[in-house]
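User: I'm new to structure prediction. If I give you an amino acid sequence, what do you actually give back? Let's try with this one:
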Amino acid sequence: MPITNSFTRLFGVRHPIALAAMDLVADARLTLAVSEAGGFGFLGAGYGDAEWLDRELAILTGSPRAGSVPFGIGFITWSLAKHPELLDRALAAKPKAVWLSFGDPKPFVQPIKDAGALVVCQAQTVEMAVEAVSKGADLVVAQGGEAGGHGISCGSLALLPAVVDAIGNEVPVLLAGGVADGRGLAAAIMLGAQGVVMGTRFYASQEAAGSLLAKQRIVQASGADTLRSIVFDISRRNIWPVPYTGRCLANKHTDRWYGRELELMRRADALDAFARARQDGDYDTAAVIAGEAAGLIHDIPSAAGIIHRMAAEAERLLLAAPQLAQQLEPATQTAAS
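Assistant: Good question. You get back a string of structure tokens that encode the predicted 3D arrangement of the chain. For your 337 residues, that looks like this:
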């Protein structure tokens, strides 16, 4: 029996599982695969590459199932501040939702709502979540520090229930960070979330954009093989403001430069080598953006396979919860007596 709640009803999906709007990795192919499997796919428009966005939107809207499955589009909000016309292009594709990350969502909330789409805001702290709701968010993604890519250090286990407590039942909350299987989905629901968002797990899928070598590195990695730092941002000449850092898989490049960031900033040769490595797919130097959930990933299945396996496991665990409570009853009564 599928898990049904405020998120699945509001977004019109069968399973409370969403694709993270990973910059470029979450392309039209992966977005459609997730949505067609009963989850909710977000196209990862990220920094706002207009040519990429137009191409991927054409694929989404030209699909034989266009209009029959819901999808969303995600932006790093700073890119919309620089190129507001990108939002118009996105809304013309009639997404079910637009995901705004990191920057101030306020300038974009009303245009999104006027177009009939839902507003999704990502938050890394309780304060960010409360502010997002006050500015009109229809859904909050609570992103724990375990997540791949940019974020901060608040862990999911403490952040999620605190966010749920702070905003109450006003809007649904999804958890991002540290989830890659049905156990994580069940745990998130028990902590008050209405579902989960996954990036790393869907990166290691057949449909995700990106090289097979990068996906294999995720499969081979443990959570301890990831590193949250600013080495990645310095290396690609795109330094984010405090307090944001980026979590990637550690490699020879991070081993060399972690703790030597100021020196790296002055080493044009190292930055040029990083750019070449990204083009060549050399992941001893180039970064594979992945979170601690990599330690739970052992294969590269289809997106549908991931969703169906994960949903079945979570449903089984949640249905077993009353039986577990009954097993605790005798011990509780003995202790009370």
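You can read the tokens as a compact description of the fold. Here is one thing that stands out. The mean pLDDT is 94.
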